[in-house]
Amino acid sequence: MKQAIRYKTSADFLLQKINKIYLLHTLVKRIKNNNTH
């Protein structure tokens, strides 16, 4: 059971990391779009 919990927490951590990177990526995209107009 402990192994399963560890796996879940690491998966949640990865998801959070991916979410942060995605948010940063969309933010940069938005800024670039604003600069071009």
Plain-language structure description:
There is one protein chain. The protein is mainly α. It has one helix and no strands. It has one helix spanning 2-36. The chain is rod-shaped and about 55 Å long. The termini are far apart. The mean pLDDT is 91.
How are the elements arranged and paired?
Elements: H1 2-36
What would the keywords be for this entry?
mainly alpha, 37 residues, 1 helix
N-to-C SSE string, H for helix and E for strand: H
- As a whole number of angstroms, the C-alpha radius of gyration is 16 Å
Q: Compute the separation of the termini in Å.
A: 54 Å
- Mean pLDDT rating: 91
Number of helices: 1
Q: What's the main sheet like?
A: none
Low-confidence stretches: none
Tell the overall outline.
rod-shaped
Give the number of DSSP strands.
0
Instruction: Indicate the proportion of strand residues.
Output: under 5%
Judged by helices, strands and strand pairing, the structural class is mainly alpha
Helix content: over 70%
